[in-house]
Amino acid sequence: MSNGMPSAASAPSAAQIWGMANPAHSIQKAVAIVTFAEPITSLTLRKVQDAVRPVAKAQGLLKEEPVSSVLFEMKPGAKPKAVSDDKVGTSFQNVQGENISEAFNVTNDGLRFETSVYTRWVAFENKLRSLVQASLPITSMSAPIRQVTLEYTDFFYARIEGDQDVSYILDRRSGLISPKVFARRAPFHCHNGWFEGYPGDPRFLVNVDINVADANGPPGLRRSITIRTHEAEQIVDIFGPRATALSDAAQMMSCLDNLHRRLKDRLSDVLTRDARAMISLGK
Fold it and tell me: pTM for the whole thing?
């Protein structure tokens, strides 16, 4: 009778030792950010909020909360003191119980869509497209685009207790992971950051961060692997042709689709073949 654990006669597979954030994929959180080159005016902000509101409601983002910017005063020997607390925008949220599952923030410095219930890129893209189409025609009249960012957080957890072998998930041969971390089964953090296309326009800021620690997963406190992949297209000349192109919603979504494909490659570069098979990530 099998108890679901690998037998002593056969080597365990990655899927027997490690689980994922979701049954079909490992994405715990996805974030898309559009950053303006300069703050938009309060009048423009209100116009964007009014345009986004019915679209947000149609997407299940029914709750509205203010987004504030708090300025603290720091003095030697004294506790930080809040000297201003200004409302800078609105967060349109989907709240499930006590948790915010999705939110679209419209602020004076940009747009941000975040989800913790990611399913597929197509679903994420379609929801984001409707929100961008409502926003960009208004914001582009006030401020050009400085940066477009996409970020994923992928999460794997050990199915059983103990210091499980992360090399079932993380590729020892990856150039983004120091070989020293595989010498013993201990927690570690590995940070990578670089520019591509520098000093051209646009240029790309890339981050790949890996954290191995004990964290809460579906079975409780277990050894976990968190991988953050982040890529931003940065516009150097905010009055140049690329900045102008990104004021169009279709061009903006094409940019995000390109970042999505690039981030799939970034993730693939740190995963083993078995781990890529677990999340159906081809290479």
Answer: 0.90
